[in-house]
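Sequence in, structure out. First:
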Amino acid sequence: MRNSNTNNWRSTALVAGAILTAGVVTTTSTTDVHADNSQNNAQVSNDQVTYDQVRATADQQLAQLQSANDSKEAQQATANEQSNAADLAQTNAQIDQLKASHAALEQEQAGAIAQAQASTAASIEAQTSAANAEYQQQINTQQQNEATQRAANDQQYAQAVNQAAENQQAVADINAQYQKALSDAANTQTSQAQAAANNYNSAVAKENDTYQGKLSAQQATNAENIKNAEASLASATANANKPYEVATTNDVAVTGRVAKPQTDVKVPAYVTKYGIHLEVRGYNGAIPVSDYTYPEFANTYYGEYPDSAVITNKDAESTPHDISELPLDFQPGLLSYDAKNDHSEKVSADGLTADQVQVLRALALSWENGFRNNVFQNYREFYNVVNKNDGFVNVAPVDLVSTDFTDNIANQVVANRTKYNIDNNSHTVISSGMPAEATYTSVINDATKNLKKNLTSEFNGKTVYTDVNENLTTMQAGTPTLLNYAINLYNSMQGMYYGELVNPTHIGGHAVNLLCAGVRTVGIGFQKLTDEMTAKNGSGVSDRKNPSYAVTFDHVGFNIDYDANLTKEVQNRNVWGTSTVDAQLNTIKTAQYHVNKVPGTKTVTPTATDVQKATASEQQKLADVKAQAQQSLDALASAHQASLNKLAQQYNDAKAQVKANYDVAVTKAASVRDAALKATGVVNLQAYKAQLDSAYQNLVKADQVAAQKLAADRDAKIANIKKVENVKLDAKINELVPSVDPQIKQLQDQHQAVIAHGDAVLAELKAENKAAYNKLAEQFNVQLAAIQRRENAKRANEVRLANNTVVLPSAVKVANDGNIDTVAFPTASNPLQAETTGRVQTVSAPSIVKTATQTPIAVAPVVTTVNHAAENTVKSNESSAPVVTQTTAVAATTNNGTQTSVASTADNKATKADNSEKSVVKAGTVAKKQTPAKKSESSQKVDQSSMSIVALAATALLGTLGITYSSKKRHN
C-alpha cells in the first residue's frame, strides 16, 4: 500500500507538469518562449551526463564483478562435490574390503567356532546335572526326616488313647459330682437375688408416693404466684405497645450490579491444542497447565483473545452491562461481553476522547493495585520471590497512583511512539527504531531528575535505586463502546499478569514488573494504532473497523538502600503529583454502593426492643417468680433422686454379694473335680493330639523354607556356570575372528572431515567476494552523491517538465543536502519514469530523480536482535532480498540478571513488557509478551511532500500565464 501511495504522488506531479508545458507552448506566439524551449531541448546538464556515465560504469563493473564471483563460487562448489564424491567412493571401497576380509575370516574359522560352541554346551550340561543331583539329595533327606517324625507322633498318640480308655468310668463319676455342685450353687443364687429385688421394689414404691404428694402441693403454689406476675406484665406490655408519632430519617442502601470474573472457562479443542503461549522464562513453547501452582491462573490466558471470543461457557454473572458494573478489584478470572446489553457510551471513529481515556486509566490503575494486593495477601510466595533482594519480603506494597505527573509521562511516551511510528509489538526503546532521547526511560529520567537529585542528597551515604519499567499490551473492540474497550483491556491484563504466575520459579516479565514493590506511580498511555500497524502480521488486531490502541504501563519509583521503611516513607510523600482519576473511580464506586437518606414523619409502633425496655421491671419480676418456682421443684426432685440413688446402691450391693457367693461355690466345685481327675492320671486327648500335630507342621514349614533356599542356591549356581562358560566362548570367538567396527568408524570420521574442509573453503570465498562487491558499490555511491550535490546547487530554481525548462517565479529554497540517500544498482522498468529518462528534476528536498529504468532498491538490511539489559547486539542471518521477514528472539532478564530466550509467536496477541536499567547496581528486566515478524522496506521513494510542491509550483505558473486548471466541474 505504501508503494501504491508513492506512485500516485508521482502521477499527480507528472500531470501537473504536462499542463504546465501546454501552457508555455500556448504563449509562444506572443512571448517568443518557443525559441527558449527549443534551446532548452538541446541543453543537457553536464552533471547529468556525468551522473549517467558513472552510473552506467557502476552497473557494468558491479555486474562483471558479481558474474566473476558467481563463477568462482560455482567452481569451488563443483570442486567440493567432486572431492567429496571421490573420497566417499574410496572410503566405501575400504569399508567393503574390511567387511569382506572379516567375512572370509569367519568362514575360515567356522569349524573352530563350532567346536568351541559344542565344548561349551557340553561343559554347561555336565555342571548343571551335578548341581541338580546335589539339590535332589538334600530334598530327599528332608522328606525322610518328616516321615520319621510323623511315625513317632502316631505311636505316642496311640499310647495316650489306650490309657484314657482304662480310666473312663472314674472320670464320668467325678464329672457328675461336679455338675451337681454347680446346680446347687445356681439355685441358691436365684433365691437370694429374688429376695433382694423384692426389697428394692417395695422401698422405691414408697419413696415415689411420698415425692408425688410433696410435688402436687408445690406446683399449686407456683401456679398461683406465676399467674399474678403474668397479669402485671400483660398490663405493662399493653401500655408500652401503644403507637406514637416521630420525625425520622431513613438510610436506604443502594447496591449496584458488579460482574464476577469467571475462572471455570471452557474453550474449543483447537484452542486447547494450541496451548498457552506466554512470555515466561524457561518456556519456548506452550506452557503445560500442570505446571501452574494455581490452575485457575492458566485460564486467564484466554483473555488474550479479543472479547474472550473463544470461551464457550460464558456466564451471565461475568458479563457487565456498563462501566459501573466492572469490578474494581482484580481477582483471577475473565469477563464476557454482550453487545446487545451494552449501555455504555459510544466511542467515535476518531477514537477515545480525553475523558474516556481517564476512565480507562482509572480502571487500569485499580486493576494493577488489585493484582499487587491480591498476590501479596493470597499468593505471597510469588510476591516474595520478586522482592527477595529488594527488602520487601513479607512487606505489603504501597498502592500505585496515577497523577498529573504520570499523565504527562504517559502522554509524552505516546507522542514519541506516534512520531517514530512504533507499533504495538515494540517497546519505547532504541531497538524499536527511535533515538535515545525519545525512549520511555529518557522521558522518565527527565521528569524525575530533580526528585532523584534531592533524594540522593537527602540520603547521603545510602544508595538510591531507580525502579522503572514498561509493560505493553494491545486494546481493541469489535463494538465501538467504552465498555467493550474496557473489557478487552481487563482480560488482556488478566493474561498478562495472572497468566504469567506459573509457579514461584517461573514468573513472567510483566508480572515481575508490576509486583516490584519499589514502584509508586504508573503512567498509562493509549497510542492509537495506524491502519498500517494493525495490518501487519502478528499485530493481534482482529477487528480493524474500530480504532485499536497500544497501551503502555510505565512504572516509576525509588528504592532507598533496600530499606522497606525508608522506601515506603518516600513513597508516601506528597511528591508524586495530584491524582487525576479519583473522580472517575468515585463515580464507579458510588454506582456500585451508596446510601440515600430519606427524611419525614411517621407513626411508630414500638419495637420489641422498646417494649422490652418499658416492661423490663415487670419481666424481671415474672422471671424471678418462675425462677423461685423452679428452684422449689428442683429441690424436691433433688431430694427424691438422692433417696432413689441410695436405694439403688443398697440393691446393687445386695446383688454383688449374691454373685460373690455363687462364684465361691463354683470355684470350690472345680477345685474338687480337678483334684480327683489328677489322682486318676487322665490326659486330654484332643489337646495332646493338637500338640503333636503342631510340632509336625512346624518341622514341615521349616523344611519348606530350607527347600526354597536350596532351589535358589541351585539356580544361582547354574546361572553362574552358564555365564562363565559363555564369557570363555566369546573370548575364544573374538580371538579367532577380531571385530572391524573400530576401523570402519575411523574411515567414516575421516570422510566427514573432508566434507567440512570443503564447506569452510567455500564459505570463506563467498565472504571475500561479498566484501569486494560491497566495497566497489560504496565507492560508486560516494561519486554519485558528490555529483548530485553539485547539480542540486546549480538547478535549485529550475524544474524539468517534458522537453521544457521552467524557471519558477521565486527561488525555491534548497534544503540542507547533508543527508544524501544511498544509491543502489539493480534495474527495473516503470512507464511513468520513462518520460523523465535522462533528465534532472529539482524538488524541495534536493535529490536527483533517477532514470525510469532504475528503480532504487537499497542494499538488504541486516536484521539484529538487541538485548537491552546486557547492552550487546547479536546479528542474525543477512539476506539479499529487499524485504526481510524475521521472528526475533528477545532476551528477557529478571532483577538478578539471569537471561532467558523467549520465542515470539506471531499468532499470539501482541503484548510486551520491558524494564529499563535500574541505576547504581540493580540490573533492569526486559519482558516482551511476543515479537512478531518485522519487515524492512528498503525501496527508496520520491518524497510525497516534495512532489506536492512541484505540482503547486506548476499551478502557480499557469495562473501567471492566464491558464486556469481545476479539478471541480464547471457549471454552464
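Second:
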Amino acid sequence: MNDGGFRSRTAEPISTLRQVQDAFEAAELGLGSALVITGPSGSGRTRLLGELVVNSSFDTVSIGGASNVCEQVDYSLMALLGRSGRQRDASRRTAGLEIRESTIATRAEHLLDVIARHADHEGPLAILVDDADRMGEDCQTLLGYVGRRLANHRVVLVLVSGVEPPEPFLPLSQVAVPPLGKAAAVALMTEALGRTPAPALVNELHRISRSNPGALLELCETVTERQVDGIESIRYPIVVSGSRASRWMEIDDRMTENQRTMLSLLAVAKSVAVPDLLELAADRASADPERELDGLLSLRQLERIGDRVRIGSQLDRWAVYGTATPGRRALAHTLVDERGYQRELGSGRDGVTDASVLRPVDAELEPQQVLENADAMAREWSCSVALSILRDAISMSCDTSASALRLTAAKLALEQGFRSDAESLADEVVWSDACVADRAAAELVKIEARYLADRPINVESVVDAVRECADEAPAAAMDLAGVAILFQLEQGQFYGVYELYRLAERIHTRHPGSPCDALTLARMSLALARENSEEAQSLHNEADAVEPFSRRDFREIVASGMFLTRLGRVEEARARFECASNPSLTPLQRMYLLTAQVDCEIIAGNPVGARNLWEHADAILSSHTHLRTLRLAQRVQILGLQGQFCEAEQIAAQLLSVGASGEIDSLQARVLAVLGENALMQGDAERAIALLEQSIDHVDRHACIWKTQRYVDLIEALVLAGDLRAAARMLDVTTERLQRRTQTTLTSAILARGRLLVAEITDARELVELALGSRDDKVPALERARSLAIYADRLLEHGKVTQSRQRARTAFALFERIGADGWISGGRWSTRTGMEAAAPPASGDPRLGTLSDIERRVVQLVVQGMRNREIAAQLYVSQRMVEKHLTSIFRKLGIRSRAEVFALIKNEQPASASSIPV
C-alpha cells in the first residue's frame, strides 16, 4: 500500500498512519483484520477514510453508516461486491438470497463467504464503513462478527466510529485519530496552497475548521492571495466551496418555508430539541409539522442525538447560513434569543461557531457600543469577525457614525496586520464627509500601511492633509507630519521631509499648547540624519527630562529605543524595549518591538538572541509582507554572523534585484554593507572593499553606529588587501567625522579597532585596551573578539607567536560563546594566528572541495592522529566546536567515522596524510 499520500496530505501522527498501513500490508499477505478508526466529530477520521480509498491498491467498497440503505448492511455490501467484481452472477445470486428468518451469525457467514470468494478472484479487498457507530444494533453486531473472522482472508475491514465505539467493535483493533494540531495544519495548508500561509490565516482557518483536515482543505480553496499573505482578513459569512453551496441551494429549492426556517435556526443554534422544532412549525401554521420535520431529518447532513437535532458539519452550517435570505437569518437570531437556545458562539473559547456572531446589528445600538463589542471580539476571539461586525454596522449607520466606525475598523485591521483592509477602509474615510481630525487619522493609517508594505509614501497627500487640519486639529496635524517624517527617514527618503517639518513647526508656533510628541521624535531623527548626534542626543535628553520615555506610549518608547540603538547605547536601548513589552500588545506592536530588538541585539553582538527574536517576529507577522526589506536585511546579517553565507547570499539577491535598474535605498545599502562584512569574514578582501564602498556611497547622510562600523570594516578590508596607505586615509576620514559627534563607549571601541589595524606595534597594546574597554564599559563580546583577533594578527606579523596564540585563543572562545561562527569558519583568519587551513586537493574526490577552510584543517589534524581535545587546543576552539565541525564533515563526505576520513584522504594522497596542501 502506498502511504506517501498519507504523510503529505493528512498530517496525522505517524503512529496512526503506521497502524493503518500495517493492517493493509498484512491483509495483502493473507492476514486480514478489522480496524476501528475512532475520533471525535471533526477530528479528520472521515478524511483518513478518504485517504484509504485514494491511496490503496485494494479493490475498495465503501458505505456510509447514516445511509438508509444500511439497515441491512450485509445486503448492501453483497450488492456492492456483486457490481465490483468479475464474479457478478454468483455474487448477485448470493445477494438475492432471502434470509429473513436467519440469525445474525447465519447472515454474517453468508457475507463472509461472498467476501472470501471476491478476495480470492479479484485480489485484496478493503471494506470501508463510515459512521459505523450510527448503524442499528444488529448491523453493528454483524460487522463485529465479520471483523473477528477475517484472519485467513486478504481482506481489511475499516469501521469509522466516535470516541467510544459500540460494544460489538471493542474486540477489534482501535486506531485513534486525534484532532489536527496547529503545526500539522500549517503543513497541510502549505501543501494545499503551494506556500506557507500567514499565521493569522492559519489561526482563523484552524479555528473555523475545528481541526478537521477535510474542512481545512476546502477552506483553502476559497481564500484569496491577499488572505494567504496575511494582509487581508477572512470575510464573514464564510464562503464555502461552490459544490457545497450548490448542493444546499438545490436542497433549499425543494424545501417548504417552514423547513427553511427550521434549518436556518439549526445553523445558528448549537442544537434544538425535536419538540421545539415541531412547535416552531406549528406556530407558523404548518399543515403537517411532523411530516415537514421528518423530511428535514432525512437530510444526511443533519444529526439526531437522542431528542436533539443539529447540523453535523461546520461548513454545512456556513453553507446553510449563506444560502438563507437576510430575513431568515434575522428570524433565526431572534428565535435563538427569545427561546434561550445555546448559541454555537458562546464565550469565544469552547464548542463554538461564528455564525451567530454575524447577527444583524441593532439599528438602535449606539456606535460606541458597537465599537466596544468589536474591540472585545478582536481581543478575545477573532479580529476577522470583529471587522465583519463593523462592516455590518457601517452599512446601517448614518454618514457621521459610519466614518467613525470605518476609522476604528481601519485601525483595528492595521493592528492585526491586515494592512490591505486597513488601507481600503482608510481610503473610504478620506473620501467621505468625515471631520478633519478623522481624515488626518485615516491618512496616518494609510501611510503606515504603505510603510509596512515598503511602498513610497504619498507625500503630497500628507502635506495637503496637514494643511487642511492645521487650525481645526493642530495636534492631529503635527502627529501626522511627525510620523510621516519618521517613516520617510526610515526608508532613507528625504523627499518632502523638510517641507513637512516646516509645516509642523509653524503649527506648533501657532498652537504651543498642543501635544507634539511625534514632532519631537522627528526632530531627533533629522538631527541624526544631518550627522549631528550631539544635537540629537540633546533633544532626546530634554524630552526625557520633561516626561521619561519609559512612561510614554508604545510608539514613543520604541522610537526612543531605536534612537539609542543607533547611537550605540545598547544597554539603555534594551531597558527601553523592556518598558515597551506588554502582554496586551497587538500583533503589529509586537512585530515592531521585536524588529527593533533584533537590531539592538545585532549591534550588541548577540546573533543567537537576534535570530530568536527575528523568528518570533516572523511567526507573528511574516517578513515577506511586513517591513520586508528591513527584516530580510536583518536576516542576511544574522545568517552571515552564524556562518551561513550561501543562504545569506540568496536572500540578499532578492533584496538587491531592483538595484540594477533603480536607486539603492538605505536599507539596500545596509544589505551591501552586510555582504561586505560577510566577504571580510571569508577573507575576500577585494569583494569586501567593493561592497563596503558602494554601501557608504549610498548612506553618506546617515550618522549612526551602522556607518561607523562600515567605515572601520572598510579599513580592515583595505589592510587585508595590503593597501595600508588607503586604509590610513580612510582612518583619518573616519576620525574626522566622529569628532563632530558625541562619542559613546561602543563608537570609541570601534574606532580603536580601526586604529589598531594600521598603528605601529608599539601602540597596539594601548589601542587594544581601549578597544576592549573596562569592565564598566560593557563593550559587546563580538567587538572585543574582533579586536583581540586583530591584535593576535598584528603580534604574529612581528614574530610574537606565543602572545599571538594566547590572544587568538581568547578571541575564538568569545566568537564561539556568542554564536558568531562566521568569524571562526569563514576563513578571515585562516592564513594567520595559527588557523592555517588546508586548501582543497587540485584533483581527486570532488567531495573534499565542499569543505570549508576550517573543516579542511580539522580533516588534516584528524589524519595526523589527533583527538578532539588536541584539535581544539590547536585551533583555539572548544571541543564541542570540533565535534560540530566533524559532524558537518561526515555529512558532506557521506561517511560515518574518523577511520573513513583517514581512508579517504589516504586514497587521495597516497604519500602521507600530512601531504594535504596547506
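Remark: The chain has 46 helices and eight strands.
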